[in-house]
Amino acid sequence: MSELGSVLRRVRAFAGQLTLLAVLAALAAFLVSGPVRLANGRTDDGLRGDIAKLPAASRDLTYSGIRQGGEPSRAEGSGRLEPIHRGLPEPLPGMVAGSWYIAETELSSIRPAGVEPGECPNLVRVRWQTGSNGTVTMVDGRGPKSGRTPELVIGRDAAAALGIKVGDRVSLGSEAGRVEAAVVGIFTPVNPADPIWSDQELAPGACPDPREGQRSEAVLLTDQPGVIRIGAALANLGDRWRYRLDEKRITADQVKVLTKAVATARRVPPELTALQSSLDTTLGQFDEQVGAVRALLAVVQAGILATAAGLILLAARLMADRRRAEFALVRARGGAVRTVAGRTVRETLTVVPIAVAAGWLAGLLLPGRAAPEEPLLVLAVALVAVLAAPLFAALGARHPAFSGHRPDAASLRPSPRRLTAEAFLVLLAGGGIYLLRRRGLDAGAGVDPYLIAAPVLLALAASVVALRLVPFPLRWAGNLTARARGAIAFLGLSGAGRAPLHSGPLAVLVVAIATGLFTGTVTSTVGAARDHAAELAVPADATVSGYRFGPDVADRIAALPHVTKATSMLLYQGATVRGDTTPLLTQTQAMVVDAATAGLDLPDVLVGAKPGGAAVPVIVSPRLAAQLGGGGGRVEVQGRDYAFTVARVQATVPGLSTEARDFMVLPRQAMPIPDFQPILPNRILVAGSGFDPERVRQAADDSQRALLAGLTGKQQKDGALAVPAVVTTRTAYRATLEQRGVDGALSFTFAAGMIAAAALSLTAVALAVLTGAPARGRTLSRLRTMGLSPRQGRRLLIFEILPLIGVAVLAGGLAGFVLPALIGPALGLSGFTSGVTAGITLDPWFAGGVLVVAAFAVLAALVVENIANRRLRLGTVLRLGEEQS
């Protein structure tokens, strides 16, 4: 009991130092758990959102029955629904939220009974499905009770689109035959969001001849006898077993397992079935994105945790330095080094584990999913926080001293052992970056250890180099200030030149700033690349796409309010290319645009191209250029050949997707286009501000209808276009680049990294001030006997702390800025930028933010110094009496 009381008395006596250590340990434990949980939660939400957006045919696991001998189904497969479910590869069975057996015909024509079929009839599927009882509300008529004549029910929207009402008799036809059925009911879903309806949506379909307009495709429901009769007549009835996976049960850490399970289900399906689903493809693509986000998060987390660990070590060292005399007294009374370490361990065990548990609990309260390594990291934080102070105390007790030893007065010449260790650290950092660039990420390692270690080592190496270089300019500056009037600058720079005093805080500060600048640089780089991707995909304020517009479409749109210019353009997918010097006959994507007036970023050779030449100059993609062998040829565009010569080879062109690999850009103003065979555009580039996208779309569709009316001699109704116009603004397209599943986690990683780095940087500066506070306090007490004012004392601190902050900003800023360029290929940043590669950029706002943090660091240093001076009572240190300021 007496031992416990002694420990508690020491804890109360040194409560300030232990509280600082405990707070930093709690903060580190929180950083281990809380931010990672939030990031994982956002990743999971993004995955679920991506899966929820998929159409039913892609997200569901659907087994289709294989017909034996080409015979249609007998609609007797409902008994296999549960056995197939149980036989799914793990962990799929536990993720199924709903399952249905479906007997359904293929798309068949539908028309009123007794009416001859038209050229473009509507198409329907007739379905009987288990689990539909209680999911519909009949708004007219009744449910099907098929006898000799099959009976059908239809959704209200489909009935309106097909022009069907209760009591109608319809004729369904396929290549094998026709059958008549009666429509006996019209229904609405009880819950339209129910997954059972997700594959029964009314859909528009194109007629075989686009000039005939558009038709509808719908699903009609019947009972089991009805679907058997209809299937026998049409000879195209098939079986399907559909399983809906609940995306709420799926987390990002299950992606690899789920991908493998779906692939296994496809490779080894149940007997006489084949799996139809692209869920494994979606999961695989998401896993690649998650891997890149996880890599970024690992780099940021490693930097933040390394900074937090460094702060804990600084606090532990501060605690040991402040108790140097106490430990020397223990040694003088015969205590061993382990005695000093043991009493310090008992003190830290009283406070630190509780603080670590509190920090971990705070992280557990945040929503999200824990990382598998979270308990081990929390344990590591607890061990470092508990053992750091006893270790420093033991090291100090090996050479006890009562003289108030000043660590800042150490020799500026480092020992050979230390120089060797620092050189090894620099070589280790350089080797880690080189190996990471050479071999890339280890995809099988989860979070690549090289990726974690290399950035932190680079920041530490930068701090070591700065530590060895900074005394020379400081010595030069000190010599200059020694000749100037006043001693404040000289004394401050002399204190700053004592490198051993600031080696720990400098390393911690450099790591924090490097982490923050790395995060800011990646943010700017990704943002700039996405801006470039948006400029390539939408090279004007908006683009209008459609099937084919009339020659006057640009004039129609240019006449709208707030539209300053409209330029027509053709993207022709099936252009046939023949080379002059090679036996090349291939198809490519041709882009035809008036390069002189479009305002696109195209080479001068295209912008200045004039008509009358034997061949028009063109831009071609690198792959097409390699096939052409550098020569020219002829290209077919909308049924007419044009001679061309290759003027430029480019990998990307404004107006074409970054995924385009084979393309050719032709200057329309230089092409010999006859008046009787004009090139009809399918794209419009719109320039302007504040225009109404809906009016632009209407004008474009009016042009399409006018063109079709001229070709067919029939007026086209609204909504009858096979490919209605779509208006895409650059702003909207740019926004879509930030709406993928992983972008929530990516944005959180960026924000959390910069905020944490800024906060930890300020803490590092505060600890640097506290470390030197006693020695600086004795110096100030002596100087005040010579007339030093409190204001001059604050200036002295600024001169001493500014070099530390400045060097840290330069070294950490440089390391953080070059780090994305050094390890960018391993991070896979192009996965966030639609494949566009952009140079490393840094937004001026982020650079300004570093300066703001530096200014706040100076203010924090002044505040901490003022608090420390009040506790030290500088006015009475030399028994000079209380100084009134």
UniProtKB/TrEMBL annotation:
Keyword Phosphoprotein: no
Residues passing through the membrane, by range: 295-316, 348-370, 376-398, 419-437, 449-470, 506-529, 748-775, 796-824, 844-864
InterPro entries reported for this sequence: ABC3_permease_C (IPR003838), Macrolide_Exporter_MacB (IPR050250)
Biased composition (Basic and acidic residues): 73-84
ABC3 transporter permease C-terminal domain span: 754-863
Region called Disordered, residue ranges: 62-84
Membrane topology: Multi-pass membrane protein
Subcellular location: Cell membrane
Keywords of this entry: Cell membrane, Membrane, Transmembrane, Transmembrane helix
Top-rank taxon, per record: Bacteria
Similarity comment: Belongs to the ABC-4 integral membrane protein family.
Protein name per the record: Membrane protein
